[in-house]
C-alpha cells in the first residue's frame, strides 16, 4: 500500500524500537501525561456537572422555574393563570402569597418567609409532598392556622408537630406608623429538601390564611409558573413578558439564582484551566522528545533531503510522529475518562469500602453520593483543546528539522 513520504517515515519513527532509552521514556511520559490530563478533565467536569444539576434540582424543588409578580395593583390572578397556561412551554400555573415575618417560639426567634399555597394543587403536592418528613400537606386547610416548617427552623426553635408558633408580621398603620401583627399558628408538619435556603427560611400555610395577614403591599402575591423544560425557563419567561400586561414582572430561576450558577461556572472554568496544565506539560514533553529525535536523526534527514525531499516533507515526518503520540494519548484519555465518569456511582463506594473512608460525610453534607453527568459537548471541547495543544507542540521541532542543512549533517559521516 502506498503512503506519502512524511506519513510513512513518521509512522516508522513511532514504531522504531532502536530509539534511545531517554527519548523512549519521554515519549511514554508524554503519552501518559496527555492521557491522564484528558481523563482528569472529563471526570472532574462530569462530577461538577452532576453537582450543578443536583443543586438546580434542590433549588427548584420548592421554587417555581418562572414567577409572575405585580408591580403595583393586584390583578386577577385566575385570569393571569389562564393566559400563562396557554403559553407554549408552560405546564401549569398556580397563585401564591408570601410575607416576611419573625417566627417566635419560647425565647427563640428566627426570620422566616411565610408562603401561602394551595394544598389541593397537583403540582404543589408533587413538589412539597415528597419533602415532608412529618405531617401531611392536606392539613393546610383554609382557616385551620396550620403550618409546615423547614427542618432547620424546627431544630432552631425546638418545634415538633402540634406545637404553637407565633408569627410577628410587620405592617404599617393608617397613620404610617409601624403596627406589627401577631398571628398564632400550629405546626402540623416538617419538611426537608436538603438546601439551607429552603429548610432554614420557608414556612408553608394555606393561601387564604396568608392573604388575610395584612393589607395589599404587606403580602406579596404572584403566580408560580411551571415549565415543561426547566432549562428552557428563560425562553418561556420571554414569551410570558410579551404576552402578559406590562404591569406584571416576569422572572425565571436563572435570574433569581444567578450568583449560585455564576460561581459554579467560574469554578468549572478555573478547574479546567488548572487541569489543562497537565496536558500542557505533556505537550512540552512532546517538544523535548521531538527535538531529541531530530538531533538523533540528522543523518536520516540529510539523506532524505539529498534524495530530493522538500523541507515541507521533512516537517511532515515529525509532525506525524508528534501527532500520533499526542492523539493516541487524547484517545486513551477520553476513553478512560468516559469509563470513570459513567461509573462514578460504582467506583466511589468501592473505594470507600476498600480504604474505609467517606468522601462525602453524612454529618457534614446533605448528599453523601458523588453525582456525575457527562456532557458530550464538554468531552468534545476537552479533546479538541488537547489535540490543539499537542499539534502546536510539533511545530518547533518540525521547523528545526526542516532547516537542517544536508551538507552540515553529512560532513563527518
What would you say this structure looks like, in words?
By secondary structure, this protein is an alpha+beta fold. It has 2 domains: about 5-55 and about 260-410, no CATH class; about 75-245, no CATH class. It is built from 16 helices and 10 strands. Strands 2-3-8-5-7-6 form a 6-stranded mixed barrel. Strand 2 (about 90-105) and strand 3 form a beta hairpin. Helix 1 crosses helix 12 (about 310-340), helix 2 (about 20-60) runs antiparallel to helix 14 and helix 12 (about 310-340) runs antiparallel to helix 14 (about 375-395). The chain is elongated and about 105 Å long.
User: What is the radius of gyration computed over CA atoms, rounded to a whole number of angstroms?
Assistant: 32 Å
Q: What order do the SSEs take from the amino end to the carboxyl end, as H and E?
A: HHEHEEHEEHEEHEHEHEHHHHHHHH
Strand order of the largest sheet: 2-3-8-5-7-6
Structural class per helix/strand content?
alpha+beta
Shape: elongated
Helix content: 40-55%
Strand percentage, roughly?
15-25%
What's the number of domains? Answer: 2
Per DSSP, the total helix count is 16
Please summarize the sheet with the most strands: 6 strands, mixed, barrel
Mean pLDDT: 81
Write the layout of secondary structure elements.
Blueprint: H1 5-15, H2 21-61, E1 66-70, H3 77-85, E2 90-105, E3 108-117, H4 122-128, E4 132-134, E5 146-150, H5 151-157, E6 164-169, E7 181-191, H6 196-199, E8 202-206, H7 207-211, E9 220-227, H8 233-243, E10 248-252, H9 253-256, H10 258-296, H11 298-306, H12 311-342, H13 344-355, H14 376-393, H15 395-402, H16 406-410
Amino acid at each position: 500500500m502506498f503512503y506519502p513520504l512524511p506519513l510513512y517515515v513518521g509512522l516508522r519513527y513511532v514504531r522504531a524500537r532502536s530509539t534511545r532509552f531517554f527519548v523512549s521514556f519521554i515519549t511514554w511520559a508524554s503519552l501518559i501525561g496527555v492521557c491522564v490530563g484528558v481523563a482528569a478533565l472529563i471526570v472532574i467536569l462530569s462530577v461538577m456537572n452532576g453537582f450543578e444539576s443536583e443543586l438546580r434540582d434542590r433549588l427548584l424543588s420548592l421554587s417555581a422555574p418562572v414567577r409572575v409578580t405585580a408591580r403595583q395593583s393586584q390583578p386577577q390572578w385566575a385570569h393571569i393563570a389562564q393566559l400563562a397556561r396557554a403559553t407554549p412551554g408552560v405546564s401549569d400555573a398556580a397563585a401564591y402569597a408570601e410575607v416576611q415575618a419573625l417566627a417566635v417560639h419560647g425565647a427563640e426567634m428566627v426570620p422566616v418567609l411565610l408562603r401561602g399555597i394551595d394544598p389541593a394543587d397537583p403540582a404543589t403536592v408533587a413538589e412539597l409532598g415528597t419533602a415532608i418528613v412529618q405531617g401531611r400537606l392536606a392539613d393546610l386547610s383554609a382557616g385551620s392556622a396550620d403550618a409546615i416548617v423547614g427542618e432547620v427552623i424546627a431544630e432552631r426553635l425546638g418545634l415538633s408537630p402540634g406545637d404553637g408558633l407565633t408569627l410577628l408580621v410587620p405592617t404599617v398603620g393608617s397613620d404610617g406608623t409601624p403596627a406589627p401583627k401577631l398571628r398564632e399558628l400550629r405546626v402540623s408538619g416538617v419538611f426537608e429538601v436538603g438546601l439551607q435556603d429552603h429548610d432554614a427560611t420557608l414556612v408553608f400555610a394555606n393561601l387564604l390564611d396568608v392573604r388575610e395577614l395584612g393589607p395589599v403591599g404587606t403580602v406579596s402575591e404572584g403566580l408560580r409558573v411551571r415549565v415543561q423544560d426547566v432549562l428552557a425557563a428563560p425562553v418561556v419567561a420571554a414569551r410570558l413578558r410579551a404576552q402578559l400586561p406590562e404591569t406584571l414582572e416576569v422572572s425565571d430561576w436563572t435570574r433569581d439564582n444567578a450568583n449560585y450558577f455564576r460561581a459554579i461556572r467560574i469554578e468549572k472554568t478555573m478547574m479546567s484551566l488548572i487541569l489543562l496544565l497537565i496536558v500542557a506539560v505533556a505537550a512540552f514533553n512532546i517538544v523535548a522528545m521531538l527535538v531529541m529525535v531530530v538531533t538523533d536523526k540528522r543523518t536520516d534527514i540529510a539523506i532524505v533531503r539529498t534524495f530530493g525531499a522538500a523541507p515541507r516533507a521533512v516537517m511532515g515526518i515529525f509532525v506525524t510522529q508528534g501527532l500520533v503520540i499526542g492523539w493516541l494519548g487524547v484517545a486513551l484519555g477520553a476513553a478512560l475518562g468516559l469509563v470513570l465518569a459513567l461509573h462514578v456511582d460504582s467506583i466511589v463506594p468501592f473505594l470507600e469500602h476498600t480504604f474505609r473512608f467517606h468522601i462525602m460525610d453524612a454529618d457534614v453534607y446533605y448528599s453523601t453520593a458523588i453525582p456525575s453527568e457527562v456532557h458530550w459537548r464538554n468531552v468534545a471541547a476537552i479533546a479538541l483543546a488537547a489535540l490543539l495543544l499537542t499539534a502546536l507542540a510539533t511545530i518547533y521541532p518540525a521547523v528545526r528539522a526542516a532547516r537542517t542543512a544536508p551538507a552540515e549533517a553529512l560532513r563527518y559521516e
